[in-house]
Structure formats: structure tokens, C-alpha cells
Design goal:
By secondary structure, this protein is of the alpha+beta class. It has one domain. It has 7 helices and 4 strands. The N and C termini lie far apart (82 Å).
Amino acid sequence: MTRYQDIPQFTKNATYAIDVSWNYLSVHYINSILDYKLDVNPEFQRGYIWTHQQKEKYIEFILKGGSSGRNIYFNCPGWHNGKIGQYILVDGKQRLDAVLSYLNNEFTVFGKYHNEYTDGFNLTQASFKWHVNDLTTYKEVLQWYIDLNDGGTIHTDIEINKVKQLIENNSIYIPPIHEIIIQQSFINDKDILKEAIYKREILNNKSIENYKKSLTNNKKTKKR
């Protein structure tokens, strides 16, 4: 008997998702790298293959109201339990790089660089849906990557077969050292990310100063 319910299902999808406006993307990205050691280039990922023209077309599509292609997928085994375990980028590497590169004024959109526009992005339009799954094994993560990318013509057979081979070999994920995470995230190469770190440091210093002030005020209150 043939039944629809017997059809094998894809790997479970992420249950956590937030909207990240491109206005705040660089800060969110920096926090993910520095606080949670996000690995944006695990071994199963292909390289950065989009040209400036492809990046430009993607940005223009979104800014004209395009609604597809705004999802980015990550995995962290303990995301719902103190964010324990390695945080890795599973799908959306090209899109994420395209937007960060544009924010860094590396190419124009509609003939203008990002810093030539005088207003911010539309919050509900220019944003990513940032999904985080909590798959517990590397094998599950690899299969999820295949599920997300094997249905179209974007990825080549060679790229997909490479990931399938990792599954067959029972490959184990080895987190990169902190220096590699920093290097592959382009933190030191993009001015927009350097600026985000600067703003982050200022915010942290303000938080420290506010904390010290609160301690001082508490002491004064107790004396009274």
C-alpha cells in the first residue's frame, strides 16, 4: 500500500528565528562571532563564489521588495540550553557575505554605494530571517545542509557529493581555533565590522561605567 505518510521527511527545521535588519546586521554578526564563536566557514561549505554583479543583483532584488532568499540557517546543539556547543553557519553564506560586502561599500547598488544613501533600510523589507537549529550531531547538520541545497541547481553535484562523503565517512566536526574564526569572518578586513566592534566597545564601557555608578549610588543610599 502506497501512503504519503511513508515518504521520508527532511531533517527537522529550526524552531528559533528572529528578524535581523540590515541596519543592525554588522553588530549582530560581530556579537555572534565574538560572544558565541560563530563558524561561518565549516568544511562542508563551498567558498565565496558570488561575483560583485551577483551580489548587486541580490541586493537590488531585496530592496525592490523581493521576499525570497532572506533566510539564513545556523546550528547550535545547546541553543535552547545556554547556547552550549559550536555555533555554525549552515546555509546562506553567499547572501550574508553579499550584504556585509555592500555595507562595506565594496560595490554599488542602483549606481550608488551604501554610504551615499542618506536614510536607513526599510526595517520590514531589508532584513534576514536568522534561523538557529539545535541538531545534536554533526551527521544531522550535514544532512540538513544537503536537504536545504540538493533540490535545485544552485549547488553542483561535486559540492553536494563532497558533503555526502563526509556523512559516509562519519566525519567529526572540529571547531576552528579562535584566531581562525576571527580570520574567516573578515572582522579585520571590513571597515563596517571594525566600526561595529568600536561601537560595541563603547557600549560595553558605558555599561561598566553605569554599573560603577550604581554601586556608588547604592553605597550613598546605605549611608543615609
